Structure formats: structure tokens, C-alpha cells
Amino acid sequence: MTQALSQVFRGPLKLVIFDCDGVLVDSEETCCRLCAQAAREAGWNVPDHLAVNTFSGMSLATIQPMIEQNAGKILGPQWEPAMQQRFVAAMKEGVEPVAGVHAMLDCVQKLGIPVRVASNSSCEEMDVKFEKTSLSPYFDGRIHSARDMGVPKPRPDVYLKAAEAEGVLPCECVVLEDSDPGARAAVEAGMACVMLRAADKPIPDWKGIEKINNLSEFSDIVSKLVKVTP
């Protein structure tokens, strides 16, 4: 175990919690581009190449006032549910799993560690994504939606809910995230957090987080955490 994770993790490892978009399913860019398109429709010119940098990891409840402020236009109460349906429709057209995700999940499964998902996406949206990417069997009945709870990341509620549902303590969990708001939620929940990031993209300087560049590295980390004793 690295020094960074040891600042928070106490072990033994009892639960792995995954974000969804950008960690399990390669849907982050698609959803961010849809938000950029919606911003342009409202009058805020966010080009597609800046979509991920602008909206990654954010909930629709956070994005709507951003667009309203920058566009100078009130979008109304129907904007968020309408965007949610645009996400679902896009996922039904096709979405790919993150490279190496099935092998990584098989490794975690062989170690006997329970898994859950805690995402800003709705359960409806995640159901479509997991069906399209053959991930449903890994997470049947083990999905938690911050959007459906009404408390999106970076608030920690969805991660705490996942730990509570498993009957474990936050310090006995490890989270896999890719966005700053998601990592902040994990940190605020008191959980160790591994961030999946490109080699040239830094991570925040927060207690209890470390960086990996591909999913095979996460399998190695989980294998080490399993051996940690209190």
C-alpha cells in the first residue's frame, strides 16, 4: 500500500466502490459534449474540445446554474430531466466499456471483495450503460445514484450510502474515481481514493488519494489492500 492511501485506509479491505463514467464506462466525453451542446443552445459558447474540462464530474444540478449564469438565460425546471433523457438516448445508441474493465473486475471478484457503484448518473442511465457494456452482472442491485438521492458529488452522501448498504466503515473502503468532484466526495467520506488519470494530467493534492494511468494498476492496488491488517 502506498503512503498516500495509508493516510486514510485502515483495513482490512471490505468494499471497492466505483464511479461510473470514465472509470467503468467510456461515457464521460459523450455526456460532456451533450452539455456543451446544451450550453451553446442556451447562448454560452462552449466548444466540444473544452467540454470535458468544463463539465467533467459535475452533476446536472451543478451544470444548469453554470449555463444560466454564462448564457444569461433561465433554463427552467424541465431542463435537467430533459438533459437526463438526452443522456439515456445517447447511451442507447451505443457506449463502450473503459479498456481493461472486465479483466480488472474479474480480478477483484476473484479476491472475494464486494463491489458497488456510486455515481452522479441516474440509475436509469447506469442501467442502460451497464447493459450495453456487459457490466450488469457485476453490479446487480449494487448501484447508488447521487442524482436520484438529490445530493450530487462533491458531497460524500452517495459514497457513505454505499458503505452503509454493505455494512462497512469508510476506512475499510477504496474508491476508484476519475474526476475532481468525485475524488472530493470520496475524501470527504473518509475513504481512500485512487484516481484514474492520463500520465500528463495531475491529481489534486489531497490527503488519501493516489494516481494510476490504467485499470490494470488498480487490480494490483486492490491485491495489496486485501493483505493489510488493522
UniProtKB/TrEMBL annotation:
InterPro entries: Beta-PGM-like, HAD-like_sf, HAD-SF_hydro_IA, HAD_2, HAD_sf, PGP-like_dom2. Its cofactor is Mg(2+). GO terms for molecular function: catalytic activity; metal ion binding. Belongs to the HAD-like hydrolase superfamily. CbbY/CbbZ/Gph/YieH family. Keywords: Magnesium, Metal-binding. SUPFAM superfamilies: HAD-like (SSF56784). Coiled coil: none annotated. This is Phosphatase.
